[in-house]
């Protein structure tokens, strides 16, 4: 494996462990708590797609007239990831993006989708991220998370977008959470079967095949530029810290609801 990749993985391991063992997983023990979790997490699912498309725009030609752009190997890597994320299959083989699949899971579980749907509606109308976050009354922890992701997108530097996508956006689903979801599903099989499928599909596709493609893409883009690797490491650390802050926000809302 690329020595720079190994170095980043070593440096971020403490943060990865903080995410894997985050206290939020320990308080998601019923359907109501899961609904709260989903209402925050859906924003991470959505802006993950925005980061992905920013990469595709930077690494391939998405305008007319078409011209070959960049490395064909890198074009292949990002296009294959996009196909899987933007047009995967649901439990019945119907094509949909992972974001659309997540919305279906929320609706089945009885989670409130109005916030994310209002946000997207306002964003389509205004093209203004901050205004849309405000108009939709997005929870502050989710707002900060989305702001961070779009700050990476707005840098318009493919190697930094790739590093954040590869290392900072891995959902690091712990075995404990899978066990909790299996327990809830046993009690409410008609409420979270889609979410269970989403998690299983995420582990199967994103956590395995796509992660290898993303690692190769980041290695190609950073190359032998030591400054690129330094910046990539710093931004990856900030991205993982952003995910921890998002989980902190979910934890606090669940705890406050119990008071």
What features would you describe in this structure?
This protein has 259 residues and is an all-alpha fold. Helix content is 79%, strand content 2%. The chain has helices at residues 3-20, 24-27, 31-59, 72-86, 98-109, 114-126, 129-135, 140-155, 158-168, 175-187, 189-222, 226-257; strands at residues 88-89, 95-96. Strands 1-2 form a two-stranded antiparallel sheet. It is globular. The model has no long low-confidence stretch (mean pLDDT 92).
Radius of gyration, Cα only, in angstroms? 18 Å
Give the class from helix and strand content and strand pairing: mainly alpha
SSE series: HHHHEEHHHHHHHH
Q: Provide a count of the helices.
A: 12
Number of strands: 2
State the end-to-end CA separation: 49 Å
Major sheet strand order = 1-2
Strand % is under 5%
Q: Unreliable runs, pLDDT <50, ≥5 residues? A: none
* Average predicted confidence as pLDDT: 92
The biggest sheet, with number of strands, parallel, antiparallel or mixed sense and barrel status, is: 2 strands, antiparallel
Oligomer: single chain
Proportion in helices = over 70%
- Taken from the alpha-carbon principal axes, the silhouette is globular
């Amino acid at each position: 494996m690329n020595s720079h990749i190994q170095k980043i993985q070593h440096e971020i391991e403490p943060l990865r462990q903080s995410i894997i063992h985050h206290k939020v997983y320990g308080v998601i023990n019923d359907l109501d708590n899961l609904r709260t979790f989903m209402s925050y997490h859906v924003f991470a699912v959505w802006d993950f797609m925005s980061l992905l498309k920013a990469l595709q725009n930077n690494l391939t030609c998405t305008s007319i007239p078409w011209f070959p752009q960049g490395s064909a190997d890198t074009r292949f890597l990002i296009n294959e990831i996009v196909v899987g994320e933007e047009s995967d299959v649901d439990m019945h083989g119907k094509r949909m993006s992972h974001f659309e699949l997540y919305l279906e899971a929320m609706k089945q579980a009885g989670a409130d989708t109005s916030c994310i749907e209002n946000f997207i509606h306002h964003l389509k109308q205004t093209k203004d991220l901050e205004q849309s976050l405000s108009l939709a009354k997005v929870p502050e922890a989710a707002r900060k998370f989305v702001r961070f992701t779009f700050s990476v997108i707005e840098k318009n530097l493919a190697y930094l977008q790739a590093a954040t996508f590869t290392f900072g956006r891995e959902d690091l689903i712990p075995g404990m959470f899978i066990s909790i979801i299996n327990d809830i599903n046993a009690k409410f099989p008609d409420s979270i079967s889609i979410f269970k499928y989403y998690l299983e599909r995420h582990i199967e596709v994103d956590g395995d095949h796509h992660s290898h493609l993303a690692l190769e893409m980041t290695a190609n883009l950073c190359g032998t530029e030591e400054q690129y690797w330094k910046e990539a490491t710093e931004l990856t650390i900030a991205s993982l810290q952003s995910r921890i802050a998002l989980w902190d926000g979910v934890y606090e809302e669940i705890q406050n609801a119990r008071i």
